[in-house]
Amino acid sequence: MTRLMFLKFGITWFSLCFSMCCVGQIGNADRNIIVVANIDVAGIVLSKQQVKSLFMGSSVGYNFDVATLPPSSLVRVNFNTLIIGLTEDRIQSFWAQMRFTGRKTQPKQITSVESLLEYVKSTPGAVTYLPASITLPDNLKILYTTVSL
């Protein structure tokens, strides 16, 4: 029994150290998120609460077409952590309830950052989150950023 406990402890410790090592290699610049939209109106700025509401299916006064990355994306994990404040399991549970009751529609998921950028760039009214380090085309406007100015 003692060897089994030691083995479990060792595996847990290794996993923790490995994740800390990997997370440690991701700098703050790579963790920062921007929320961008393909809109003609200049000067729209959203608060963190408005961004959270928008991506959780609520209206924020604009008719946006919301698009997200799949749950396996590190950018999505960062967005959920920094903006939404919920784990992916909690978010999926929320959307399951919304689908069941017919109250809200989950944002469309696009498989990669590159495809997501292309979608937003070519779809008027589209909005999404992206890594802050990405180069944006001229027609996209930043609505929110986690980068400290």
Characterization of this structure:
This protein has two domains: 1-28; 32-145, Periplasmic binding protein-like II (D-Maltodextrin-Binding Protein, domain 2, 3-Layer(aba) Sandwich), CATH 3.40.190. It is an alpha/beta fold. It starts with a helix and ends with a strand. Strands 3-2-4-1-5 form a five-stranded mixed beta sheet, sandwiched between helices. 48% of the residues lie in helices and 15% in strands.
CATH class identity of the largest domain: Alpha Beta
State the helical fraction: 40-55%
Low-confidence stretches: 4-27
Mean pLDDT: 83
The gyration radius over C-alpha positions equals 18 Å
Give a short overview.
The chain has 149 residues and is of the alpha/beta class. It is built from six helices and five strands; from the N terminus they run H-H-E-H-E-H-H-E-H-E-E.
